[in-house]
Design goal:
This protein has 177 residues and is mostly helical. The protein has two domains: 47 residues; 107 residues. The protein is built from eight helices and no strands.
Length: 177
C-alpha cells in the first residue's frame, strides 16, 4: 500500500513539476512582490501603532525610570493641546479623557490604591494637591463624557476643565507651563 501511495505522490510531482518549471520566473516574481507587500504592511502597522516606543516605555517603566513617564505625559499633554485647538467638540472630549487618564496614571505610579481615579482622589488632601476639589469636579465631567458620548460640551467648558488639569499637572511638577 505504501508503494501505491509513493507512486501517487510522484505522479502529482511530475504533473505539477512540469507546470512549475515552465512558470518558475513568474512564481518567483509574484512571491517577491507578495513578500515585499507583507513586509511593508508589517513595518507600516508597527510604526503607526508605536509598538516599539510602547515596548521601550514598558521596559523602562519596569525598571522604575520616572523620566520616561514624564516624557510620555508631556507628549500626552502636547496631544491634548492639539486636540483642544481643534474646532471639533469630539476632539475636546478626547482631550479631557486623555488628561483624566494621565492624572490617573500619575496617582497610580505614586502608589495610590484604587482602580478608578475617584478612588484615588478620595485619598488626596489639599496639602498634596491644591486644587483637589476642582479636580474631582473635572473628573466628574470626564466621567459624564465617558458614560454619555453625546454629552454636550462647549468650548469654554472644555477649556475650563483642561485648565484644572493643567494646574494639577503643574502642582505635580509634570509640566512647566
Amino acid at each position: 500500500m505504501s508503494a501505491l501511495f509513493w507512486n501517487y505522490l510522484f505522479e502529482i510531482r511530475n504533473f505539477f513539476g512540469d507546470w512549475i518549471g515552465a512558470h518558475i520566473i513568474a512564481l518567483q516574481v509574484g512571491s517577491l512582490v507578495v513578500s515585499a507587500i507583507l513586509l511593508w504592511a508589517t513595518i507600516y502597522i508597527t510604526v503607526k501603532s508605536h509598538y516599539w516606543s510602547i515596548k521601550r516605555e514598558q521596559f523602562l517603566d519596569m525598571l522604575k525610570v520616572e523620566t520616561v513617564f514624564k516624557e510620555r505625559s508631556l507628549n500626552g499633554w502636547k496631544q491634548i493641546k492639539e486636540q483642544i485647538a481643534s474646532s471639533d467638540p469630539e476632539e475636546w472630549k478626547k482631550a479631557i479623557m486623555a488628561a483624566d487618564k494621565i492624572l490617573n496614571e500619575i496617582f497610580k505610579m505614586s502608589g495610590y490604591l484604587g482602580h478608578r481615579l475617584e478612588d484615588k482622589l478620595v485619598l488626596i488632601t489639599p496639602a498634596q494637591l491644591a486644587n483637589v476639589e476642582q479636580v474631582k469636579q473635572a473628573h466628574q465631567i470626564a466621567h459624564k463624557i465617558h458614560d454619555d458620548p453625546s454629552y454636550d460640551l462647549t468650548f469654554e467648558d472644555a477649556l475650563a476643565v483642561l485648565r484644572i488639569y493643567k494646574e494639577a499637572f503643574r502642582d505635580l511638577r509634570l509640566i512647566d507651563e
